[in-house]
Amino acid sequence: MTALTLSTSSAATLRADALVVGVAKGAKGPVIAPGAEAVDKAFDGNLATVLETLGATGAEGEVTKLPAAAGLKAPVVLAVGLGEAPAKGDGFAPETLRRAAGAAARALAGSKKGAFALPVEDAADAAAVAEGALLGAYAYDKTNGNGAKNGKAAKGAAKDAKDGKDAKNDGPLAEVALLGGKPRDKEYKSAAERATALIAEVNRARDLINTPSNLLDPASFAAAAVTAAKEHGLKTEVLDEKALAKGGYGGILGVGQGSDAPPRLVRIAYTHPKAEKTLALVGKGITYDSGGISLKPAGHNETMKCDMSGAAAVFAAVVAAAKLGLRVNITGWLALAENMPSGSATRPGDVLSMYSGKTVEVLNTDAEGRLVLADALARACEEKPDAIVDVATLTGAMVLALGNRTFGIMSNDDAFRTALHEIAEEAGEASWPMPLPADLRKGIESPVADLANMGERMGGGLVAGIFLKEFVEDGIAWGHLDIAGPAFNESGPFGYTPKGGTGSAVRTLVRLAERTADGDLG
Questions:
Q1: From 370, 379, 507, 511, the catalytic residue
Q2: Does residue 170 surpass a pLDDT of 80?
């Protein structure tokens, strides 16, 4: 992972491959943002004019590179757009700084060191820049040939360095130096440590999501959780197909029974000796979703390795809480299965007996995520947590409603839904509260079972939430995050968001854990 350092050096004197400065849109053209004063001075106060001549406007995410002026130790200046300049006396929003830092880090891929001289007025700004830069400095290369050669490449780079040659580096930016970071200040140091731990776990989730399904099935996903648990002092329990059958987990088994790769339910738990609250996090982990007998058409199944993004987010969030030593107990439930068609697969019209004791008529085998989540939610409720949040790439309907960058939030408690929305916004993740209309409940009634796994087509994302609510005990605050839109970016990268797996919801879940540990959620 990219290294992060805090530096009190002047932008003019720090040696780096590039100096990153901010530029905003002013009333009469681009305006140089605070933090870049020394760089502007090296250009005789004309940096904004030079950038405007090169076509820069200060638009959000815009990147302009130019040769450094005499007197600067770095050979390149990279100006990144911050969008509209704030009113006098106001600073830039944390998410603006995150996105700008991320765009700059992506533009510096292959470089050894970038010095970030973006606006940093306090530790919160430092945290935003650090998070954005580390999020932007990401690349998945484990299956493209280069990843397999990483060991040899590292040895070759070391030899080149010894011989005085420039080491070739095709990976992400190797080091982020955050100027104005005050390394001896407790708040700044804490912000840097949190950013490093948090983004390492976002990247863990991204790596899992990007891993091809032939390399990540339920058993290997469970093994990865067990390995991480041993490293970070977490407790795990893995239920294989025999244990699932013995325990009556009909939903998970029903989804996974068509595959040669059997399902798993993983419990991964972090505890703190002084914790007063307990959170349960439940993640949908369909390592590949063909749709089952209700087969997805061509054009809709090529990216379905990402259908375990919810489980990846939960896994990463529990590890992040352990790294940060949060004063809260967190139990993660990873409901893992592969949804495949075969002679042994669940058929439309079959009735499954769920862990909760309820029965479900399966009208569509491609509505499988709610089935594995239902079993995991019911099991999580038995431990009487203070709150439960499930995370899932659950419905295409939510993408139609909110687009590709915003996840939906549903809950059985309006105050908890509002809190989750506020927390997501704090963390920098776009979200929107959604209702659970009572009139849609009738649509999931079945003549042969307690429930059907499908209801009205219109409002399908809400119907899925209503179905899940049936498996949550009364009196437990529950939230449902449908991350189907932002979990996997099929377009080009933007800001700090890469193409492919994004690690959506990890930051929200960690912020929820922090707020709970601090007693901010009651």
A1: 370
A2: no
